[in-house]
Fold:
Amino acid sequence: MSDFYEKLREYAAYTDSGLDVILPKRDNYQKEIYEAMRYSLLGGGKRIRPVLLFVTAELFGLDVETVKPFALALEMIHTSSLIHDDLPAMDNDDYRRGRLSCHKRFDEATAILAGDALLTYAFEVAADGASGLITKAVVSGNTELARNASKIVGLLASRVGTEGMIGGQVIDLKAEDTAIDEYEHDTLCRLKTGCLLTIPSEISGLIAGRTDTPEYGLAVDYSKSIGLAFQIQDDILDVEGDPNLLGKNIGMDDVDNKTTFVTLYGIDGAKHKLEELTAKAVADCRALMELSSCNKESAQFMLDLAEFLLERKY
Ligand code: GRG
Structure:
């Protein structure tokens, strides 16, 4: 497991340095927006979504450099959603990643714009990444790569949009004060949290040209399981987590009267579901290790990651 932690830190540090480079400090008339974007983007965070993109890329035989623009874009999209999620009109949280949330550190208007700016910049970075891949594909005559690279930006947009994370947030807002049943709640979680945790496997599969292989199916299934497990752990930590480790207040779901895995199944029921989904993800990793077409070290890292997320306290 010590190899796992070292690799996790390596992937996260690679993400952090990449983000620092692509999001420059500017000393122009609109410099406040750069300050707010950098404050939220570079102020901590586990970098799980880029980590998933790097490891699935390596699983399919790609190098991390190839997927880097999409990994950085993904983290910017995720951070933009956290900034907006913390706004008074949404979850109204004062703390995020161990410090004041963006709207508390700056003001509400700046936070709205910082979220918007990170989201739009993410698509600029992803589009640049896709056009780099298309150029490479044209030079090498790889028409499948050209076709797949041109799909990535649209797919990313749809995983963020009304049938993706934003759709999940819409159901989430409805779930405050209005009870929703377990089916609607399942959709909520698959969209709000699951989409951004599954798209790394989808992007890696497209770039590697492996979307019709067994390893792709297993990687996507793995991502879906850890996506749901991730939200269950989030709900459990909101009840019994340590705010100092979490870097934000707990009990917010109760304040908002939200339907969560804990309200639907009880704390023990939620923990049981979390363990079941983790076991499923682990089984997918073991099946990946059996395939000669996959990088075994990456499959082992994915297995360790599923267990790390099961135990996470932040
Ligand atoms: C601006 C694109 C955009 C969307 C607005 C507000 C909103 C729609 C969506 C919110 C989605 C949301 C906050 C989902 C929660 C997912 C979740 C469990 C977040 C916590 O992720 P971690 O633990 O956080 O990976 P760190 O801080 O480690 O990055």
User: Anything to note?
Assistant: Residues 2-311 form a domain with the Farnesyl Diphosphate Synthase fold (CATH 1.10.600.10). Residues 45-46, 48, 77-78, 80-82, 84-85, 90, 97, 115, 119, 160, 165-166, 169, 192-193, 230-231, 234 surround geranylgeranyl diphosphate (CB under 6 Å). Residues 108-140 form the longest helix (33 residues).
